[in-house]
Amino acid sequence: MAKTFRGGVHPDDQKRYTAAKPIEVAPVPQKVIIPTRQHIGAPCTAVVKVGDLVKKGQVIAEAQAFVSSPVHASISGKVAEIAEYPHPVFGACTAIVIESDGLDEWVEGLPLERDWETLEANAIKDIIRQAGIVGMGGATFPTHVKMAPPPEKAIDSLILNAAECEPFLTADHRVMLEAAERVVTGMRISMKVLGVTKGYIGIEENKPDAIAVMQKAVTGTGIVVVPLKTKYPQGAEKTLIKVIVDREVPSGGLPMDVGVVVQNVGTVVAIADAVQKGLPLIERVTTVTGGAVNEPKNLLLRVGTTFAQAIELCGGFKESPAKLIMGGPMMGMAQCRIDVPVIKGTSGILALSSSDVNAGEEKPCIRCGRCVNACPMGLVPSMLSILGQQGLYETAKEDFDLLDCVECGSCVYVCPAKRNIVHYVKYLKAQNAAAAAKK
Amino acid sequence: MSAETKVEVNQLTVSASPHIRCDESIAKIMWTVNLTLAPAALMSVYWFGFHAAVTLAVCIGAAVGTEYLIQKWQGKPVTISDGSAFLTGMLLAMNIPATVPWYMPLLGSFVAISIAKHTMGGLGYNIFNPALIGRAFMLASWPIAMTTWPALAGAVDGVTSATPLGMLKLQGYEKLVATFGDTANLYQSMFLGSRSGSSGETSALILILGGIYLIYRGYINWQVPAFMIGTVGVLTWAFGGHAGLFSGDPLFHMMAGGLILGAFFMATDMVTIPITVKGQIVFAIGAGALTVLIRLLGGYPEGVCYAILLMNSVTPLIDRLIKPEKYGARR
Known about the structure:
The complex is a heterodimer.
Chain A: E1 24-25, E2 31-35, E3 45-46, E4 53-54, E5 59-62, E6 71-72, E7 77-87, E8 91-100, H1 121-130, H2 143-146, E9 157-162, H3 171-178, H4 180-194, E10 198-204, H5 208-217, E11 224-228, H6 237-245, E12 260-264, H7 265-277, E13 283-289, E14 297-302, H8 307-312, E15 323-326, E16 333-335, E17 348-352, H9 354-357, H10 370-374, H11 381-390, H12 393-400, H13 410-414, H14 421-438
Parallel strand pairs in A: 1-14, 9-10, 9-12, 10-11, 13-17
Antiparallel strand pairs in A: 2-8, 3-5, 4-7, 5-6, 7-8, 13-14, 15-16, 15-17
Helix pairs in contact in A: 1-4, 3-5, 4-7, 11-12, 11-14, 12-14
Chain B: H1 26-48, H2 50-74, H3 84-94, H4 103-118, H5 130-141, H6 164-171, H7 173-180, H8 183-192, H9 204-217, H10 223-239, H11 250-255, H12 259-266, H13 277-297, H14 304-321
């Protein structure tokens, strides 16, 4: 019996466009736009100048702060420009533009070969930091920070989030099918760093082939593959933890408060590559799909490739896109332009046609209760939307647990009145943060 | 690569996530409820004839017309196509005797839509079920006309102008059973609808089928009709008889009056009932208990309308006290 959680929704998973398509290695782009900030935390500063020649894998931006992550050149060539460029998450950000020399040469000494089992935990953490690895599911939290919980938090389990519950996305699915060994190695390295013996891989049942492949790959490692019911948001960190180890992260807390660290599939593969071969995070698998894309694909893209270049590799647009999204359709970020670059957290590039979107005019709440039934956090989303319209963030926080909302969007998906509940929640949270900053 | 990837300025919509929605809408819900209620409305025309058709038309026409005029007058978008005013009209028609003079349902619908719905802020903001407010207004204004029940068009069993509940109140259970022949006949008439009453109250069978379809579609929760009708059954069985405790006739009470219509179609009106399933169960038990209280001890033979309205008034309180179980609440 597959495990599941309370609430959730069942959108059409739309994975049929790309689920059966092997990962295609994109050709080396002529030019890349690499933002100096691709993570949550302190921004990096460029350590190269315009005109410098750089090699693939060379550090081009870094920061001293602990909660930060360095950025590497994703192609070899010349630094053509360092300037403010559009950014898919932060709006705009300093970016380093590299023009390819056509050689695609690694920086000296890479790739190397290393036996991870002989390495100390601290040495591995350092490698992870140097390699610029961040959470590749979209949140882009620096991985070395996640791997170094404070000593008072006793961690006993590592959960690999392989649910991939967002509709359309198949990147993690393909990585598991095509690189199961690296997934397992990355997990084992992470478990060694954390000093835990229990490892779980949670996979939704709509990927039976991945479940079978991973079950085979974990043989003899003690890692357990847990089939999960196909339901959104199965892969939201808190619901995943509840389902797999039956613990509830306390309000305002983190997974480490219940002894768990959760990693994304792409992230552990990046860990394996960094530790075994010394490779920094300069490329990632991204699903390029949506009703407006001619030929949806899973592409291995260099960081800094623009969305436009990626869509061109998929035969361009079939029809005029209504929305361009970074990530999945439930939690991804809408883009206002197509020349934004792929960053470390770009799990998907989604060009939705107007028929995919099905927005409709916002109507008053009719209290049907669908949002209450759908909310995995047990909140009353309808009230948050009404309080949001009035800007009443204090009531929302104190009486309706505003800050516990994970913005999964299940409530908006099911709402017959087409209310933009997540929009109101983000607004209220911003109001609340602004008020807290004033104090 | 020649593929076109040009995107015009301002072509892309930017908004907060999520970017996909299910295909439900308010109009879809309301028209589905209308559709499931329609067979029972047509049955009332079959049982009570032309008069029932006129009452139905006047109620619906006046409800939709009132909403149109109010929204035009206020300069707001006209929302009559969402089916909710239509539903209020149809529900009102099914809650009153088919034979009332035409101007009564006209005013009833006007009060339901103007006062109960639009003075509160329109759809979604009303505290009380508009159709029931319309009915309560009519009962208070024209008590005689509103309690004069039409004979069945075919005059099947010669059941004429008294409703079974009215007979029970004034003449007692024995006389009621005698009128129908025996209890089996009584139950059959109640279930199929060959008895006197408000237009839409008479056929338990058709209303239940409609209600089951709404449950199947997920538009109403089964708990509401189950707990409301169940409460009425238990309490009338316990306290409804003359021979001491547990001598009542629960089957009769469960099928009588407006209970089935009320439990499936009005105690489930999402706008005016609690938002959590647990809260709805409390609501349903309360409405059932109040119905029995009015039927057994009150001045009126039937109490479903007032029971639901009274529970509507405590809905905000129930929502305040009963909230969903939060993730992360237990440590």
